[in-house]
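Before the break, one more example. Copy the sequence into your notebook; we will annotate it together after we see the structure.
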Amino acid sequence: MALDFLAENAIIYVLIAWVVILIVAKSLKLEKHGFTIKPYSLTYKNNQVQSVLSKMLTRTRRGIRVFADVSVIAGFLMMGFAFWFLLSNISNFFIKPTEFAELTVLIPGVTLTSAPAMLYFLLSIPIVLVVHEGAHGIVASLEKIKIKTGGFAIFIALFAGFVEPDEKEFDNARKISKLRVIGAGATANVIFAFVLGAILLTNPLFALILPEPFLEWFYDEPDGVLILSIIEGSGAEKAGLQKNDVITGIEGVPIITPLDFQKVDLKPGETVTVTVNRDGQQLEFPVEIMPSPDDPDKGLVGIMRDNAFYKPIYNFIEWDPQVSMFLLWLWMISFFIGIINMLPLPILDGGKFIYTIIEKKASEAKINAIMFSIYGITFAIFGLNIALSYMKSGWFTI
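Here is what the structure looks like once it is written out:
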């Protein structure tokens, strides 16, 4: 009940937390320690970032040089992947609705309303920002571009990190140097996500987001969804489904894991064909769908099912459920911030990346016209994904 109350009033609690943060910041007089406090934001700047980055660079120069070169290539690849994903997702909405990926913008108190989701998000964001901005800074140092300050900012429920290079040195740097610096942040996020992913290959939950063919390489595929018990008086009982039957399909839709039930639109009162595996035999049963006790408009087959998913082949880590969920959130945020950040939009690295490529190729007016056209197209594609997600499920929250 307490968690439900928190979920229903999440935005209120976020605002209360923000007021508390401002009061604490003011009472501790954090302005004397590099903080700027405003009613809507809290910003921290550190002028010693350059010295820290220089020390790191002296020990890892060769590796950072390779990373900086890779970042330029990775920048193009990530931008291309982001466009491909968004465009193919729009196509799936009309052609393959079951494969459409619903997207939302993660905002604590608005789209993030559950206490666990907000906790995992708040723990993940600082790590992702340090990786992202640290990569920008150390590559800038490699390219002999001075970093004036570095820090972070909180805008009530939104977070940002930054490193501020010397503008004159950055503007006068070679084009390839600028591209290395710009691409480094997103590349570091994606590499970090790959490292996390390698660890998570031993985690059953990671199978839910791992695409083919990697899924079959690292996980044993279940045969279907096991029936643990039958609800008395349900359509499943009347049709003849039994305990220990394994559901492998509903209305021709393959059922491999419990999540596959979401691919079938079950309406109370309708009759669907349920395919099961019973003692090695494949059988089909016409099952009348019953209404859910919680939501009469939602249909249920009438069973209690096993919620087991894929089993990792390399199963040598005993995973704590909370650690698993935190690392999955960290992986998700790091990967998608890296990819989405390379979209050519004004506030993202992708916009700076494209501008750097085409700058000085034409007059400033023409360059600005081209950039605004690119921004418009990108925003329309991204916005359409959000709008289609809303059309499918409403303004969904996590």
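The chain has two domains: 46-212+320-393, 222-309. Residues 1-7 have pLDDT under 50 and may be disordered. Try to locate both features in your own notes.
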